[in-house]
Structures are given as structure tokens and as C-alpha cells.
Amino acid sequence: MRPEILAPVGSMEALNAALAAGCDAVYFGLPSFGARAFANNFDLETTKEVIERCHLCGVKIYITMNTILYEDEMEDAYNMAKMVHSFGVDALIIQDLGFIHLLHHRLPNLVLHASTQLSVSNPYQIEQLKKLGVQRVVLARECTKEEIQACVDTGIEVEVFVHGALCICYSGQCYFSSVHYGRSGNRGMCAQPCRMKYTLYEDGNKVDTHGEYVLSPKDLSLIDEVNTLADMGVCSLKIEGRMKSAPYVYESVSQVKKVLENMERNVEDKQNLRVTFNREYTVGHMYRASGKELMNSKTCNHQGIEIGKVVKVNKNKICIQLSQDLHQNDGIRFEKENLGCHVNFMYDKKQKLISFMPKNNTVLIEGPVGVHVGSIVRKTMDSELNKTIEKEIRTSNRQSKVNAIVTCSAVGKPMVMEVYKDSTSVCVSTEIDSVQALKRATDEETLNKQFSKTKDSWASFDHIEYHLGKDIYFPISVMNQLRRDALEKMKEACLKQEPLVEKEYSYIPQESKTSFDLFEINSMNQKVDDSSCYVSEMFNSNQILEKSNIKSVDGFVNAHLGKGKIVDSLNVSNSYSVAAILEMGYESCVISDECDKYQVEKIMKAFSSRYHFDAPVYKTLYQKRRLMTMKHCPVNTALKDGKRMNCGLCHHHRYELEGLDGKRVFLLGDKDCHMRLYDVNIMDEIENRKDYESYGIKHFRFVFTDENQEEVKTAFRAYNR
Prior knowledge:
Blueprint: E1 4-8, H1 12-21, E2 25-29, H2 44-56, E3 60-65, H3 74-87, E4 91-94, H4 97-106, E5 112-114, H5 123-130, E6 136-138, H6 145-152, E7 157-164, H7 176-181, E8 198-202, E9 205-207, E10 219-221, H8 226-232, E11 236-239, H9 246-260, H10 267-276, E12 281-282, E13 305-314, E14 317-322, E15 326-327, E16 331-334, E17 339-342, E18 346-347, E19 353-354, E20 356-357, E21 362-366, E22 376-381, H11 383-395, E23 400-408, E24 416-421, E25 424-429, E26 435-436, H12 444-451, E27 459-468, E28 472-473, H13 476-495, E29 518-520, E30 533-536, E31 545-548, E32 557-558, E33 566-572, H14 575-583, E34 588-591, H15 597-611, E35 617-630, H16 634-639, E36 655-659, E37 664-669, E38 675-684, H17 689-695, E39 699-703, H18 709-719
Parallel strand pairs: 1-2, 1-11, 2-3, 3-4, 4-5, 5-6, 6-7, 7-11, 10-12, 23-27, 29-30, 29-39, 30-31, 31-32, 32-33, 33-34, 34-35, 35-39
Antiparallel strand pairs: 7-10, 8-9, 8-36, 13-14, 13-22, 14-21, 15-20, 16-17, 16-22, 18-19, 18-21, 23-24, 24-25, 26-28, 35-38, 36-37, 37-38
């Protein structure tokens, strides 16, 4: 079966573009609880209208409620989910495990999709999520082709990103923006520190990184590979871009559709897509792209397409030798200076004002001051393409196809129209009976002409079967009214919702107790006594419990939903999330660092009140916050080949990144070569231990990264006072 094309919608213009281009489903956010807080999200009234409109033309609606949720937000989030469920939303895309758990138990008919923010990449993680009622998983963009296939083989619906921006960090595992800029990516407010400039230092010495955007990936584009994904059994091809323009949505959807229909994209197609938005393209982790194949260290901006070079400058008059056509109102950018403008005034060689200049000519434009001879010129907005797309959208009317049976057995009988589509059918009849035809009888030709007048309707007739008596006659107005009545009644039938099923929350978790503190270490010299419980994702040892990384499943402690007893790194931020962890069979979990002291207290009180025992959780008291976990390595890319094979540089040298604001992070890879970024500042809450214990927390977690033995001992002494 052909996979659906899933389009991003951040505005009504983008929705119109997606529908006109031929999408099968769209996804968008609400004013709250979505991972794109700055998109032009729809309010609830508009959401209801959009759902009805899309359902009438056979397009599914998925709503993103994919942020982590705090305890005092759960009720509002639940009520919002219940509301859109009553509107007929086809599924919710969710990150928060507690929210998934709550909805599964209270709204059993609501379809739940696990967001890419849950960074799912293997079958075991999927099997765990199935226990919470998840019916589809949006895979991590770090998945290889083989890993995608393994996930598909679990039998769950699998959704894969095929075009758009990449996050360099595993989604849901990035705290860079939260820690350094007070804007949580897990709360939909990412400041995009990955798109900023950085200097790399090795043991205090600057390293040439061949470009300053060392954390900024190219855009993903697997459009030419969508049939491969279809053959693998992927059910949904997802396009990123809820903050992108309507032309971007139109071009990306229409080109995915074109390839799925076994047509090749031509040069013009590819150029049109690039000019709507690109940071250069990569086939991404599906085909194991790494280093320079994955990253664009030169710029983080929209690249558009190259259209020429500056050959002469006189103040703000800029002469360009064109390699591509240029129109008035196009948007351009001068690459060297990173300056841009709209082409408002352009002139030919005779200084005559013009609106178009074909390629292989020189053109004079009025542009920004500061442009130099030799600068490459890039088109970042094609005004003619936008006009063409706007016309396509304006003249498009996405309709459903319905069938009908029309009957009038004899003079003196009404005309009856039965309309049907799939398993839905309705029946209407004329208010008057037919009369004897004096001249021309009402025949199939006459009826077809009137019944085809559906241009402004939600549906059109694909096939009509007629059973007409001899010499019957109806006025034209009666035929038209029959058509309108039939389609209106069919519309009501198609939009009719099943009664909402809501259950009381009755889940009772089995009591579990944490029995020891956790001390996570990166080297053996950080193990300072034999009585504490040490864990590590850096090495295996008889004396050290293993912690699995974000993709593996074996370990006593899991950075994801692995086979161990304790879950770390999945943003447990409310009491229902703790219950979800227990429902999947784990003993305890680590409370998210996104929670402040007030929120931790709320979690503990709510859990104890609801389940009548203390939540079996860990609170981290000491660490240098992990900001990112990446499959990319800026160190290997700068100093070797970017392939991350047989390297080990980060274990023999100290590497740091410094931003333009002077803030620093240090880099340390794990044993499986996932690069981890850490804040250089210590988060020390040891003094709050007594308060946390009063909330019901019995045991705590410490994380040691680059600390020497004496620094570890100092933290131990402070804790044991």
C-alpha cells in the first residue's frame, strides 16, 4: 500500500498549499503544548473547521502535543486532547510518556503516535511503547536504513522524515537552549544554539574547523528515496517545516507525490524546491552520511540557488553577471557579505528600468551597501514561482469523489438519489413528483449536466447509475436542489462522530522502591569507594554497572527504554510519567533536569496522593549538565574524515566549543562514539537534599564527567555531611 504524504502546516496558507499539492495528511500544533511554540498555530475553533474541511476531502489530521508537561499542566492538556478528540482528530503526536499513559487509560479510542522527540530507534523501545497504547512511532532521524526496517518489522506503523531540517542532537535529548538561553527545546521554545557560530579548542588551542557552524547540519532530502521507504513498509512520509512558507510546503509535497507516482524529478523541480528553502541537502543517517556529507559548516542560512556573480559595484548600484534568470521582486543574497534584499529596481545596460533579465546577461540592481566584486549571488525567493504556486492554490478545489444511484420509475413518482462513499450512504428525494414530459423528457444527459455542477462543493460525482422511467420531467431547479440536498446530507453523514468514550483513571502501579544512590562516572579514577553504586556508559567492568546509551538496550540503567531496571534521559516531568515507567516494567526513573525544585515537589505530592506510596525516582544533585547527544562528531570532522572510525581523539585531548557570547561547552564521546556536549558549569543541588527527602525522594544521582578524583571526593563529602 502506498504510504501517506504527511505535510507540515503552520498557517492557513500552508494548509491550502498542502491540500493543493496532494498531501494525504497534515500535522499542526495548538496554541499550547506543541514543539513549535512560535508557529502560527491554530486555535480550537479553527482546528475544528480544519478537521472538518480536511476530512471531507479525505485528508487526515494529526495534532502535535509533543512537549514535556509539568504536573500542573496535565489537566489542561488532557482537556485539550479530549476536545480535539471530540472534533475527530485522527491522532495526537506526543512526546510526554505520562501524557501518553493518561490518554491511553482515559480516552481508549484516541489514536496515539510517539513523537520523534522520544528518539525511538529500535524494536525493543517500540515494544515498550506498545504497552502504553502507542499505535505509530515517528522514528529518530538518526536511524539507518537497516534500523528503519527492523522497526517496521515490529508491525507498528512507522513514520519517517523524508525532507526538511535536521536536529543535530537526538530529538528530546537537547538541553542546550534550556541551559544556556532559558528557552527549552522540549517546551517548544528552542533558541537553536546548533545554528550558531563556534570556535573549537583542543587542549586550549584553536582548531581550524573549515567553517564556524560546526553544529549546523544540512537539510535532509530523501525525496528520491521515498519508493525505497514505501517498499520497506514505512506507512508515512513526513515533511518537516511548520515554520516554513506555503511555497515550500507546496513544492515538497508535490515532489514527493511525483516520485511516488514513479515520475522523475527534473532539474526545474529540484531548483524550485531549493529556492523555497535549503541549507544544502544530505541523505542523512538513513544512508550513514557523516562529517561534511551531513554538515554545512559554512552557513546556517537558507541557501536558495546560485544565480550569478557581482562584477561591478558603484555605491548601492550592483552589476551582476547572471547564470540564471532574474525577475523584479525576487529575493537575493550576496554570499560573501551575507547581505540580502528584494530586487525592487533593476536596469539593463542602457540604464532602462526593466522587470526581467534572462540568464547569460548582466543586470544592474539597487542593493545593500557593502557588497564587493566577486561575491556569489543567490536567489532565495523566486517571485514568479510564488505567483505560479499561488495560482495553483487559488484555483485548486480538493474534493472527495462520491457515487450515486438515481431512480424515478414513472410519471407521478419523485426522483430518489442515493449517494454512497465507502461504507457511508444517504438517500434524498425531490419534494415534487415527476410530470408527463410535453417536449423533451428529463434524461441521463440532462441530469448529468446538472449533477456535474459541483465546482464549489466539497464533493463531485465519480459515477452515477440511472434508473429512469419513460417521459418523466422535472424542472432544472428541482434537479439542482436534489444535488445540493444529497451532497449536504452526505456531508453531515461523513462528519458524524462516534460518541466519545471516556473512562475514569483507575491504573494502580505496583509499588517499587529505589534502594541505592547512583553515581555515574566516565573514568575508573572517579570510583572513590566500594560501598556506592557506580554506573557508566563509557566502559564495562565487574565493579561498575552498565548504562546503555540512547540507541542500545542492554544495561542496568537505560538512557532510553531498554532492558534494565532504571530509566534515565526520557524527561520524566510529571507523576503520570513515573506511572508510565512503572507500567512498562521498570523499577524507577530519573526526574528530568527540566524540572525545578517546585515542580519536583509537585510530582512527588501528586504521585503519593494518587497511588499512596512515594514515587520511586532519583533526583540529580550534582552534574555538569549534558546539553546534547549527537551522532555527529565535530572533532573527527575537523581533524580526520568525519567517519568516526578508529578515532578516540576526545579521550586523549580536552575539546571545547566557545560561542560568540563566550559561553563554553566541552565534548566527550561515549564508547559507541556518540558525541556528548556538556556545560562547563556545575549544577550543584546538594544543599537541597533535605528538602527533596521531605518530598519523599529517598535516593539521588550524581554525574561525574571530567572531574578528577579529588573533585569527586569533595562532592561526596558535601553529600555525606
